[in-house]
Amino acid sequence: MEKEILRIALAQINCTVGDLSGNSSKILRYIQMAKDSSADIIAFPELALTGYPPEDLLLKPSFIEDNLSTLKELVKTVDGITVVLGFVDKIGKDIFNAAAIIYNGRVCGTFQKTILPNYGVFDEKRYFSSGKNAPVFSLGKVIFGVNICEDIWHLEGPTKDQAKARARLIININASPYYAGKVLEREAIIRKQARLNRAYITYTNLVGGQDELVFDGQSMVVDDLGRVIARAEAFKEELLIVDLKIPESKSVRARSAIRIIDKLASKDKSVTVIKETGLLDPVAEIYQALLSGLKDYVTKNGFKKVIIGLSGGIDSSLVVAIASDALGKDNVIGVFMPTRYSSSESEIDARQVAGNLGIEFIALSIEQTYKMYLVVLEPLFAGTQRNIAEENLQARIRGNILMALSNKFGWLVLTTGNKSEMSTGYATLYGDMAGGFAVIKDVPKIMVYKLSRYRNSLGVVIPERVLTKEPTAELKPDQKDRDTLPAYEELDPILKAYVEEDKDAANIISLGFDSQTVSKVISMVDKSEYKRRQSPPGIKITPKAFGRDRRMPITNKYRGQNGI
After folding, report:
1. Residue 531 lies in a domain
2. Does residue 395 sit in the same domain as residue 329?
3. pLDDT digits (tens, 9 = 90+) for 405-422
């Protein structure tokens, strides 16, 4: 069978939600780059024009019209290359998550997303209508189909229909959010679709951060035998260019394809262009996701510098390292705020972390402020035993100071709580939870240690004592996390089973965990929902994060059949 050589470019770009003009300018730059590389076709991510996810901007008629007007102006400039571009389409009162197929100043056809995800972080049925058709297109002698993200995950969907219409190339455009290991899931389904449908599949993914979400890119090309033949880098903008020898289709059904051009331009394709990029180590991948999510949250929202409360502990040490790597050492300020319960080792460790990173370090004792609070409250607290109220005063004083510095100098406060703490409520409202962005909110404590050791493997910044000493909040004498929480080696697997996998108590106990421990952990999680609702957004790195992924009622009396 004769084959046509097609040079295709996958534009793995970082878009900003709502920045129609900025996104359009970037799209045009990448189109020119693809033309300079003699590409026949370039594919952009899902909703590249609007950014993803636009959420309730889609309820604004003006936003939809502005998106269409921007597309119209962009289309006029396209010549000499075929462009597949994600945008919001409108027919009557219905809007669609769509792809425009553009050539020589006109839209030759569109594909409207057929399968709308409505789970986890996705809420597309709130906004979009579902497309009904799966058209195919001809570019020279190549028949290809276009579909969008979720469409490729279903074997009985548009990919199958397009392959039946003799498409031998499927161009799938995506805004697929990251979580650890997801790239392997994507690869498995794309390889299966390619084998089943005997089609080449190009998978173009978005890259960059958007609020809690981060998009990892890792765009790929899979041949008709299900082999990954090219892959873009993770968490980086890139134009991935690949030459594909696509079998011609001469069937009657293929003649119904929407024709773009009759013949591909003659160009030098004597050398096949293929780029191979290996997958990142799992811990390195998570670290890069955190860097990407933080950098884009800070820069896209107009901040320049961040401020972090340094305690000398593992969580704040990791957050300050991530911030320094993501934003540069000159844009990070660490503040150590001791009281009578803070150890000298904690100050030494906090100073050393700051010094190793080269960031600005401020030491500001809050002991006198703490004393004044106790004096003010003494008439009301008289006759009572000291408890969590006195402990949390210290955290809230620290939160107030960080927010005061934020207000005065325009610095964004980064909180340092991890997922284990957020799950169990081991955090103080308006204290260590006070801030604008929670970098490790979705990172379990055990992963915090793994990420810290990974960061030290690139160059030691976190002192060894921080990695080995027992975790403590230092809010009372000789306090340790284990006074309140199970050992993290036991806690984190229980939390994963309950929070991420929705297992009930009986199922978790059947995994070998102590029943009293399971009961205690589940109770702590359920009773802390009101705290999590008031926490800042944080980067999603697990399959189910708090917030958009997991939406539990605050007022909730359900405890399961066993009363747990």
Report:
1. no
2. yes
3. 999 999 999 999 999 999
